[in-house]
Amino acid sequence: MDNFYYFKDQTAAAGKNGPFLLDESTSQNSETPCLLCEDTFNVKEGLPIFVRHLFEVHSIVIEEVQNIFYLTEYIQFWRSKFKCRAMEEIIPSVSFDSTDKKYYFLSSLIKDDKELRHQLRLNYLLKVQEFERTDEKYMKSCLYCKLEFEGKRQDFLTHLSTKHNLQLGNPHNLVFIEELIEIIEKKFNDLICLYCEKKFPERHTLKEHMRKKLHKRINHENKEYDKFFMVNYLEDGKDWHDIKKENDKFAVTVGEQANSDEEYSDWQEEEGQITCLFCQHKEIGINKHCEHMKTTHDFDFEESTKSFTFFQKIQLINYIRRQMVGHKCICCDAHFEGLEQLRRHMRDEDHFKIPDMEVFERSEFLFPTHEEDAFLYLVEDEDNDE
Prior knowledge:
Elements: H1 3-15, E1 32-33, E2 40-41, H2 47-58, E3 60-62, H3 71-84, H4 87-90, E4 93-95, E5 102-106, H5 111-134, E6 138-141, E7 148-151, H6 153-164, H7 177-189, H8 203-212, H9 240-245, H10 254-258, E8 273-275, E9 282-284, H11 286-297, H12 301-304, H13 310-325, H14 339-348, H15 357-360, H16 374-378
Parallel strand pairs: 3-5
Antiparallel strand pairs: 1-2, 4-5, 6-7, 8-9
């Protein structure tokens, strides 16, 4: 391979627009030190210059550098690594020509690099999701009625769901909501069914088709929509199809259910009802639900999570649900044959309490254990419930 043309491809790619960043860190707009020397670069405005420096001065090529989220943090990670160990001990090298000059490739083939890229991307997506969850300045005309909406994106989705029965997904599991709505609107304008993708001659026929065929929903088999669901970013290289096929190590098998009290084998919640984290008691309203857990299980959710972020609360709820399904203590992880034995242990050992944050503050617990868990929908309203 001619190293000149390889480098030319790299700098051309670096000159293209990289991943859209909602709100780049201030460090991204300032000078960032090189991986190996004290030269500094503005990697946002002058990425091709940085890439050329790495290649010509240090013989380093970074795989798809233009697609790395939070590139400054990526650079800082490897700069710290190279201070502890020689670059040659970490990065594989290759010779392109007869000069035997070695070039070093930072790529996702390196375990640390792959994990870092994935974590930076996930951090970015969570930041986008947090913005979409809290931003109250979203404005959009309803896709069905004359409403001119202004407020939170999730409230717009709720309007589409409750008033027009258009099901686009749980807002807590979605990301890039504005782009998703634009795609849906274009399909409607092009007279294309959202679910089966058939084209119709006029809007009334399309609406009747979608209503009668129950097609007022997204077809999850259509990979066009994969980018809008957080579950597809949970594990690098896997989408929800792959995750669904895997055996969940926490799941209760049929045999285990037969030997247990089967409390969670037929999970379902009526609209507005919240099921207790520890038993099958149901309450309407999150404050009553929290009061039940406090008086019955000595578990004060509101007090224990008052310093938590929204996402930490979501992770805690999904963690506890997962542990209870697997008959495992939320505090010590001890396993029991049934839920009665588990609850007795937790009561006797005073284990109805939140474990260390690192136990549940993991990306896997950003996604529901039970798909229709009303607690997840209402958790942020706990201070507003009457």
